[in-house]
Amino acid sequence: MAEPINLDTTYEDLMAQKLAKFSEMDKRETSPLYIATAANSAETAQMLATIKNNIDLVFADTAPREYLIRRAAERGLSPHPATKARLKGEFNIDVPIGSRFSGDDLNYVVVEKIGSGEFILECETAGNVGNLYLGNLIPIDYIDGLTHAELTEVLIPGEDEEDTEAFRTRYFNSFKSVVFGGNRADYKERVGALNGVGGVRVYRAKYGPGTVGLTIIDSQYNKPSQALIDTVQEAVDPLSMQGEGVGIAPIDHIVTVSAVEETPIDITLNITYQDGWTWADIQDDVYRVIDEYFKELAKEWAQAQTYEEDYTGLVVRISQIEIRLLGVDGVLDIANTQLNGGTSNIELDKETIPVRGVVNG
């Protein structure tokens, strides 16, 4: 039986193997033997590289995006498309539905009234970019009596098209649990694909027999707005017809959607500064580092794959905060950090993510 071909064999390896078979012949680089062997080895090395590349294209762990999409399509999967952000706009008057505004190089259209002078606006550009601007708006067309127009809150975050590695992970996860109408995997797959949802946990009989509890986090890994909760509830199991199978949920599943909660973490830092540095110099960087750590924990909450009943709460660790803050310019050392007035790590409720509270440096 022939030995398997090593597709990582290099041109140099091939030359060494072939020339070693000719012990009594001229093997200098100018010799006919060397020239003939070199040409053959170059072609063989190119062939092996082509074969290896073609194999990488068709296996999901190495396939580039185009071929990964084709492989995943065999399981009925495709990347989640980019979606448009919906934001709350506040005006001094009631503006017409369909009126358009601009702000920070983006355009927004009014799609729904939610109160006196309060409307939902949709960013005309899909993706995360629609979540980034809050502030004054300029009407694209003249609106009589308008003196104030402002975006004040992201209600349903817009999302970029699912990136390649996230899609690759979702493809492999699809083998771990079979999606079937109304099982946990089905809820996770279908609710997680809704616009603005970053993750969902599914609870059996959370509110009694026949009930299903869904706890969601938004796609920015923040506590979702009430508008997003209402949108997901309507898509899954409308409150006016709960259990009737009108939405995503199967008939007789009474589903209630709720938001992940937030726990403020107050932090007291005992920092030794580098010469010439003060708290005012590093405060913004400290806030950024803490927020990034808490965002990582929130993402961990969203992406956990175990059964919900087996979840434990996230743990905010003093060591993680101190290690990360040691990388901030101006910080020489840090010790004796306190969280919410104590010197121990904080384990959160399993339906809670951390947010930055008061930070004292």
UniProtKB/TrEMBL annotation:
Q: Which InterPro entries match?
A: Baseplate_J-like_C, Baseplate_J_M, Phage_Baseplate_Assmbl_Protein
Annotated Baseplate J-like C-terminal domain ranges read 265-359
**Residue ranges of domain Baseplate J-like central in the record:** 180-259
Entry-linked Pfam families? Baseplate_J_C, Baseplate_J_M
What's this protein's family per the entry?
Answer: Belongs to the Mu gp47/PBSX XkdT family.
Descriptive protein name: Putative phage protein gp47/JayE
Q: What organism is recorded for this protein?
A: Ureibacillus thermosphaericus
Higher taxonomy: Bacteria, Bacillati, Bacillota, Bacilli, Bacillales
